[in-house]
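Researcher: Final request for today, and then I'll write up notes for the group meeting. The sequence and the SMILES for guanosine-5'-triphosphate follow.
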Amino acid sequence: MPDHFAKNEQHRRLVLKALLWITLVGGLFFFVVNLLRDNWLLATLEIGYAGVSLYMLMIIDRTRNLQLLTTIYLLPFFSIMIVALSRPHTTFAVFAWIQTIPIICYMLLGLRLGLYGSILFVGIGLFTFNQRLPAEQQLVNAVILANLGLASLAVMIFAHIYERSRVLNEKRLIEQATTDALTGLANRMKLSEVFERERAHALRNDTALSLVFVDIDHFKQINDRFGHEVGDRALAHFATVLTQRLRITDLFCRMGGEEFAVLLPGTPPGRAREIAESLRQRLADKPLEVAGSAVPMTLSAGVASLGSDGQSLDELMRAADRRTYAAKRAGRNQVVADEDEASAIDAVPG
Ligand SMILES: Nc1nc2c(ncn2[C@@H]2O[C@H](COP(=O)(O)OP(=O)(O)OP(=O)(O)O)[C@@H](O)[C@H]2O)c(=O)[nH]1
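Model: Predicted protein-guanosine-5'-triphosphate complex:
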């Protein structure tokens, strides 16, 4: 599961836990109150719900399908509120619970289900409440309903705004944490996340997955000659030029400094070599322009593939890295795609 979904789940798990404690304590309290008032239907529902809350508190940390568990819990929870509101023995104060529905729905079910759940259950709550008002005082009833309806609407709007900002902020934070600020490319953390997904996909569908490690040649000289600022521009230029050559499904990442990696889903070793070669060619064809003159850049690359070079990202990175440094030793500005080639370079005295 991607990390950001896990974070969202953690947030919802905490909210649900808090609600379960409230319904456990509330259920026990109202069980006693309803027993004392001889309201057997509600007493049974309340003690039953306290039991369900206790059971859910025990399993909540182990459950995988939190969304399903939440929905199974909320439907009877809201229904009990409505039943309680409709009973002649209960007070109108039960409507206070109806007003918590939008907050509960948005925090536990997210924006879309939060909206639908709020409209549905607050609507039914208002309708049920209206049935209990004396028919003869229509104007007073209208004022009461307008107050409760508007207050519920305000809670719903605030809950919607809160959840929307929370989701957007969370998205922004995740994006910042997984993006390299200078080039706008994905970073190492994102590569790990995507690699796991693509590896599972490749194993399930028996498709290929390759990784190209790319290192800019003599990058230090660009910094030394033109300054760090031009060095930064060169890195951004490199990212732009190479991204244009890749497919939308490929993941181009900056690993740090002048080292990059490209994850190529559905790409066997031979094709990955061709792609690495075309990246090398493209960079040579599109030098960075500084004050009207070209700053030539070249790259060295190593290719590794799932299966033949290992099963984990670490293994693939190690193999691709080894081949990149073989390419450097062989004179730079080239691609080394397999172990034979790397060993042949290593065997040359130098
Ligand atoms: N401008 C700029 N330079 C960086 C950045 N990150 C790393 N560098 C520089 O990249 C250079 C890398 O130098 P080396 O590791 O010697 O590699 P190289 O000069 O590319 O040589 P080879 O890899 O052997 O071809 C260093 O001078 C770093 O300061 C960055 O974000 N911006």
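Model: The mean pLDDT is 92. The radius of gyration is 31 Å.
Researcher: Thanks, that's everything.
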